[in-house]
Amino acid sequence: MATIEMKNIVKKYGDGFPAVNDVSIDVADGEFLILVGPSGCGKSTLLRMIVGLEDITSGDMLIGGDRVNDLAPRDRNLSMVFQNYALYPHLTVYENIAFPLRLAKWKDADIDAKVREASKTLDLDEHLERKPANLSGGQRQRVAMGRAIVRDAQAFLFDEPLSNLDAKLRGQMRTEIARLQKKLGITTVYVTHDQTEAMTLGDRVAVMKRGILQQLATPRELYEQPVNLFVAGFIGSPPMNFLPATVENGEVTLPFGTFPLPADKAAKTEGKGLLMAGIRPEHFEDVSVIEEGKVDSARTFAAHIDVREWLGDQQYAYVPYEAEAKVQDQLKELARESDSDSLRTQLVVSLDAASSAAEDSDT
Ligand code: ATP
After folding, report:
1. Does residue 342 register a pLDDT over 70?
2. Minimal CA–CA distance to 25: which of 54, 59, 52?
């Protein structure tokens, strides 16, 4: 059993605001858990407390059901992969991967079998005699993973392992990590600030902000049912649009007009004064690509596109708007609350690739 249980974990450096503030997360045996959040949210600190590289101020850390708060890192039997790979430059690929086994005083023949098995899994068998300096970034990353998987560790811990790679390689390595984790079925905790990695790799994702766990859920739940503005704005790319809104008589008034609202949404928001409506970019459509007769004129508005980005399979259109003076302060407050840059007064709309909506057009 390699469960990891974090119970009311707090970390304070000095007298300041806690870097990790009362976080409780149970990671199931074999689960892939992601810790995600903006820089400084405490995700690395939390990971380092699991490994034992950082003392826990209060709370309990249990691995495989045993309390490990006072256990040295080497006695926790965890494998960690760091952002900078932490390879030994003077050792060959073979010796880098063999390193933890030599430390554990394995026999040469057993080490050889294990290193060859891992290097095959990771497609490194042709590079075993090379030194790290003569490898590409992706190959170095794989050596670091090789070193992590040769040990029969209880869990893998990754601290932003792909952030030094270019976008294409990052995508490839992401798939490799997912494949490897599935194959080995080993409990994994993975820190990233990249929400694409979070959404694609995790069985569940823990979103953190300023030391506090905001939401712990599957990627789909995070996307469809964010618990607050921060999570709503953080998950999704381009980010969710937040628009000032008022609801009266079953209709919502947005900067672009007044539209009918489904009864359940209207019932919850009717007469509540000024609200924020969250609308994802893909929930807009260009009427010119909708079949005739299927356009709902009550939900249509004209918008002036000032910038358009064509991505091949879809397009992003940017539609600036004026926010009324009376909602400016509220927008600023929301920008603070959501830590989001999506509160600039523009709408981001994701359009079908076939849309002919042009830049500088009213569509
Ligand atoms: P990043 O993505 O930038 O690495 P993070 O989410 O991993 O950020 P942490 O590195 O865990 O964040 O840091 C959380 C908070 O704790 C930050 O405010 C940071 O400045 C502070 N902190 C981290 N390490 C120390 C330390 N050794 N001494 C004092 N404060 C620290």
Report:
1. no
2. 59
Atom of ligand 1 nearest to the CA of 47: 11
* DSSP helix/strand/coil, 347: strand
Q: Whose CA is nearest to atom 1 of ligand 1?
A: 39
Which pLDDT does position 189 carry in this prediction? Answer: 97
Spatial CA neighbour of 6 closest among 24, 29, 20 = 24
Q: Which of 12, 13, 39, 234 to mutate to test the pocket of ligand 1 (most atoms within 8 A of CB)?
A: 13
pLDDT digits (tens, 9 = 90+) for 134-177: 998 888 888 998 898 898 889 999 999 888 778 888 888 888 88
Closest CA to ligand 1's atom 31: 13
Q: Which domains does the chain have, with CATH numbers?
A: 4-233 (3.40.50.300), 238-362 (no CATH)
ipTM: 0.96
pTM exceeding 0.95:
no
* DSSP track, 88-118: -TTS-HHHHHHHHHHHTT--HHHHHHHHHHH
Number of C-beta neighbours around residue 220 at 10 A: 9
108 alpha-carbon distance from chain centroid? 40
Best substitution site from 9, 43, 213 to test ligand 1's pocket, by max atoms within 8 Å of Cβ?
43
Residue with tokens 């628009």: 243
> What single letter denotes the amino acid at residue 239?
P
- Read off the pLDDT of each residue in 112-136 and give the average, rounded to a whole number: 90
Ligand 1 midpoint to CA 14 (Å): 12
Q: pLDDT per residue over 59-80, tens digit each?
A: 999 999 999 999 999 899 898 8
Burial 164-178 (b: 16+ CB within 10 A, else e): ebeeebbeebbebbb
Q: Give the number of the atom of ligand 1 that is nearest the alpha carbon of residue 37.
A: 6
Tell how far the Cα of 56 is from the centroid of ligand 1, in angstroms: 14
Predicted local confidence at residue 276, as pLDDT: 86
Question: Would you say residue 94 has pLDDT above 70?
Answer: yes
